[in-house]
Amino acid sequence: MLHRPILALLTAVIVLGGCKEEVEEPELLRPVRYIQVEGRDAARQRTYSGVAKAGQESRLSFQVSGQVLSVPVNVGDVVKKGQTIARMDPTDYTLQLQNAQASAAQARAQERNAKATYERTQALYENQNVSKQDLDADRTAYESAKAALNAANQQIQLSRRQLGYTHLKAPESGTLATVDIEVNEYVQAGELVATLLAGDQIEVSVSVPASVIRSVERGAQAEARFNSLGGKAFKGTVTEVGVASMGGSATFPVTVRLTEGQREARAGMAADVTFNFASAPTAPKYALPAAAVGEDREGRFVFKLEKTGDGLGVVHRNPVTVGELLSDGLEIVSGIEPGDLVVTAGVSRIYDGLRVRVPERPGSEPSNLASDASGEDDFAEEAK
């Protein structure tokens, strides 16, 4: 029969096929782009936005509550020291002073009577006509009357001061930046009435990041540029450096006093303040492209490249501390050193310990690396 030879032939073919050696497929490695870290010059410039203010800014307010009787000034007025800013209705405080004076007069009369009584009792005691107990009682009454008179006189002084507080005067000569009340308005003690800009000095308040605040020192030179004045720049000196952050943010207040341009710059103008940091920071700084820095729940990191030869390498995850955003990338405060090779694109597509293909020179691409305008898909194609 013909079926047996055919079956035997098929069996032989299957056996021979199973004995054929398996061919191992080549490992597919991702190509990478990288740069070599170089040190940066520690001396550098930094520019931050700020707002100009008067060297002496006074927030004026009444020290007593009441109804506003008159406001003889307006915003922008130049006032002299002692000039009236506002008046409050003094009626209640005048009555209060009069009552205090009446109480003092009564206390004074009681003090005189108590004194006379005590002196009589003292004379009688010396002649042994009254007891020691009577003398002590009249002495106590006299001392109490003196204390009551003293308190009444102090109340007169307080009432007189409160009456004077109904007349608000300028503490210094200057210009009124704001007037915040109107006639017949009821104001509380301490409520803002007006803002007085005194003196010729102009200062600029700036918020400086924590990463560079240690490089800002009192007496350091700075430059403030005002776009509202056609880009004019004026020199200044750092007069105050904050020691506490502002409102829980990672910035610190710094004050720069202008040494020129006081007649042109005005309080409220925006300014860009440039600091020249001549002294080196405590740690070296480096810059990397933003695409080279990744971030996850453990923090920010980069991938360092270790070359293993024959155009291959291994990437290692390395945590870094990031400083400011610079014109040429992100400032790296710690985590890398000069000479390190850092992967600069496709960070989200690789992982710690991954073997990769490496170009011959930093910044170049492997021969089969797909070109992409965004620079983010450098790992999109695997080697074929």
Structure report:
This protein has 3 helices and 22 strands. It starts with a helix and ends in a 27-residue tail after the last strand. It folds into 4 domains: 30-40 and 284-357, conserved putative lor/sdh protein from methanococcus maripaludis s2 fold, CATH 2.40.420.20; 46-54 and 195-277, Efflux pump adaptor protein, beta barrel domain (Elongation Factor Tu (Ef-tu), domain 3), CATH 2.40.30.170; 61-88 and 167-192, RNA polymerase II/Efflux pump adaptor protein, barrel-sandwich hybrid domain (OB fold (Dihydrolipoamide Acetyltransferase, E2P)); 91-164, Helix hairpin bin (Helix Hairpins, Orthogonal Bundle), CATH 1.10.287.470. It has helices at residues 3-18, 91-126, 132-164; strands at residues 30-31, 34-36, 44-61, 66-70, 78-79, 84-88, 167-169, 174-179, 186-187, 192-209, 221-226, 232-241, 251-258, 270-277, 286-288, 294-296, 299-309, 312-319, 321-326, 329-334, 341-343, 355-357. Helix 2 runs antiparallel to helix 3 (132-164). The strands form 5 sheets. Strands 3-10-13-12-11-14 form a 6-stranded antiparallel barrel. It is 22% helix and 36% strand. The model is unreliable at 279-283 and 367-384 (pLDDT under 50). It is of the alpha+beta class and 384 residues long. Strand 11 (221-226) and strand 12 (232-241) form a beta hairpin.
